[in-house]
């Protein structure tokens, strides 16, 4: 059975076990089947009956965090069932604490093995936690940035200097996806004070962020092509891919180029040149003094990853 089929089966089972009285609905003595009717679950959640049918039949493949949270509350799921619901739906499980900056050893090994590709790890609030040397060589040394300068959303919406450029279409996709991901993070981490401050400050400095935030747009930043303007090797049009680790809610971001392209050759050259050749006057290395002391979340000491000697699997490097 597919994951979506398992999600539908689980929802049906949870719906069947709860009585209307337990859900706060008036009892109906004429009922024959046990549990809640779909119409009753729709009333409790504000979802349409048609959408609940699609969920239970495995035809609604991408329920949002908000939908899942509403279903879990209406069905009176335990903490374990709540987590299981999110995993079946392909979402990171909910958390009641704070955004974590913990990078497990397996992820650090992955960064080391991907030494031939620029790679970095962000937390659920898009704070940069760690990176490999080629990431620093390509995009600038993150250790030179302070405070909010290491947050991808802040860097973009506050207009900080960056080596990355977008087309109008790419920029629209990126902005919508990042805002949607941050909104989902606030649902998973409702008590995280630093995340709340970040959202408030973004809404204050960027009308565009505020507009997207108020639209409650849905989406996720998974892949796109972006151009990096490097002071030594020139422009590189690279594929940027984002992978989420469900258990840790981390975002692993990689940059890659198709084999045999000028971009692939420039990446190889940059790997040889290394971070020590980064232009000293690069404006992306200037900290943001106005907000370097602002609350930035739990990320306080990101560190680069030293590559290991074992080669990465081809399938991973190709991403």
TrEMBL record:
Segments forming domain HTH cro/C1-type: 35-82
Gene Ontology MF term list: DNA binding
UniProt organism field: Streptomyces liangshanensis
Protein name from the UniProt record: Helix-turn-helix transcriptional regulator
InterPro entries noted in UniProt: Cro/C1-type_HTH, Lambda_DNA-bd_dom_sf, MLTR_LBD
Record Pfam families: HTH_31, MLTR_LBD
Region named Disordered: 1-35, 279-319
PROSITE patterns given in the database record: HTH_CROC1
């Amino acid at each position: 059975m597919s994951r979506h089929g398992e999600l539908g089966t689980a929802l049906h089972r949870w719906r069947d076990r709860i009585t209307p009285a337990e859900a706060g609905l008036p009892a109906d003595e004429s009922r024959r089947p046990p549990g809640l009717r779909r119409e009753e679950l729709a009333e409790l959640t504000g979802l349409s009956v048609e959408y609940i049918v699609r969920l239970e039949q495995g035809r609604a493949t991408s329920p949002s965090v908000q939908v899942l949270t509403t279903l879990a509350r209406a069905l009176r799921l335990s903490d374990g069932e709540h987590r299981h619901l999110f995993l079946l739906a392909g979402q990171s499980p909910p958390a009641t604490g704070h955004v974590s900056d913990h990078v497990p050893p397996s992820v650090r090994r992955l960064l080391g093995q991907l030494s031939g590709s620029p790679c970095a790890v962000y937390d659920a609030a898009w704070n940069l936690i760690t990176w490999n040397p080629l990431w620093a060589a390509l995009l600038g040394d993150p250790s030179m940035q302070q405070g909010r300068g290491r947050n991808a959303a802040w860097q973009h919406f506050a207009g900080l200097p960056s080596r990355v450029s977008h087309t109008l279409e790419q920029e629209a996709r990126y902005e919508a996806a990042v805002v949607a991901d941050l909104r989902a993070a606030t649902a998973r981490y409702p008590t995280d004070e630093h995340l709340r401050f970040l959202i408030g400050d973004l809404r204050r400095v960027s009308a565009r962020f505020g507009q997207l935030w108020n639209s409650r747009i849905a989406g996720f930043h998974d892949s796109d092509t972006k151009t990096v303007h490097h002071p030594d090797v020139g422009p590189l049009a690279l594929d940027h891919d984002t992978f989420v680790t469900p258990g840790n809610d981390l975002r692993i971001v990689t940059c890659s180029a198709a084999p045999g392209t000028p971009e692939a050759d420039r990446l190889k050259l940059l790997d040889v040149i290394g971070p020590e050749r980064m232009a000293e006057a690069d404006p992306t290395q200037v900290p943001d003094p106005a907000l370097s002391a602002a609350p930035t979340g739990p990320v306080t000491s990101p560190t680069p990853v030293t590559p290991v000697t074992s080669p990465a699997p081809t399938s991973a490097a190709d991403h």
